[in-house]
Design brief:
alpha/beta, 9 helices, 10 strands, Siro_Cobalamin_biosynth, S-adenosyl-L-methionine, methyltransferase, uroporphyrinogen-III C-methyltransferase, porphyrin biosynthesis
Length: 258
């Protein structure tokens, strides 16, 4: 009897997938995958497996969610081993719960295979901890893009006043709105912010600034999606670690025996 696996492919680096997820890919008869899935992972599939691209560009879904649900149910009922492969974690801004519900309503056996989400992994790979004993005792992950465009449904006032670190997915197109909201609700304009493009991959690129200056930094360095936005004092930890690493790399030992 077949089974549908809702699988998190991790943040970008193909080595950051779980062992269980990799086994599911290797045993799948059908794989439906999203745009942010690293192509290297698809090479793990069986030669005869059907690979179906589902798209999922911001504001442009090449395949409608209803169609994806239909295909998962269709192949599940045929007794196939199906993998629905998503970037990050299927239940973190991945619409995995909607697909699980569609499968459950049709009596299809399914399992969720969690993945490492970019909201934590991308900052960590850039030396930014989302929590820190002195600088960040709480963190929140939010979307910067909502169904109707601007993330006006997000309670920015609560985030500004009660959360130390904010990790924002899909927020690049609304970066100006987001920074304005946080400043207007009490965050200092000098609050540190980092943006990490294609985090954990060989193409990773990061810029740092403040809520007041980050728009200019983005334009100067041409930062684009996919990118994670991290706001809070923990950004300074990343800058300090980068400085220390570069400083110690410049110190050459006098002798290898020392």
């Amino acid at each position: 009897m077949g089974k549908v696996y809702l699988v998190g492919a991790g943040p970008g680096d193909p080595d950051l997938i779980t062992v269980k997820a990799l086994k599911a890919i290797q045993q799948a008869d059908v794989i439906l995958y999203d745009r942010l899935v690293n192509p290297q992972l698809l090479k793990e599939a069986k030669e005869e497996a059907d690979l179906i691209y589902c798209g999922k560009l911001p504001k442009l879904h090449l395949m409608k969610q209803d169609t994806i649900n239909h295909l998962l149910i269709k192949y599940g009922k045929k007794g196939k081993n199906v993998v629905r492969l998503k970037g990050g974690d299927p239940f973190v801004f991945g619409r995995g719960a909607e697909e699980a519900e569609a499968l459950a309503k049709n009596g299809i056996h399914y399992e969720v295979v969690p993945g490492i989400t970019a909201g934590i992994a991308a900052p960590a790979h850039a030396d930014i901890p989302v929590t820190h004993r002195e600088l960040g005792r709480s963190f929140a992950v939010v979307t910067g893009h909502c169904k109707n465009g601007e993330p006006s449904e997000i309670k920015w006032e609560y985030l500004a006043k009660s959360v130390d670190t904010i990790a924002i997915y899909m927020g690049m197109s609304n970066l100006g709105y987001i920074t304005e909201q946080l400043i207007s609700h009490g965050l200092s304009a000098s609050t540190p912010i980092a943006i990490i493009q294609e985090g954990t991959t060989a193409n990773q690129k990061m810029i740092c600034g403040t809520l007041q200056t980050i728009i200019q930094q983005v334009e100067k360095h041409q930062i684009q999606n996919p990118a994670m936005i991290v706001i809070g004092e923990v950004v300074k930890v990343g800058e300090r670690l980068q400085y220390l690493k570069e400083s110690f790399q410049e110190i050459k030992p006098i002798s290898t025996a020392l």
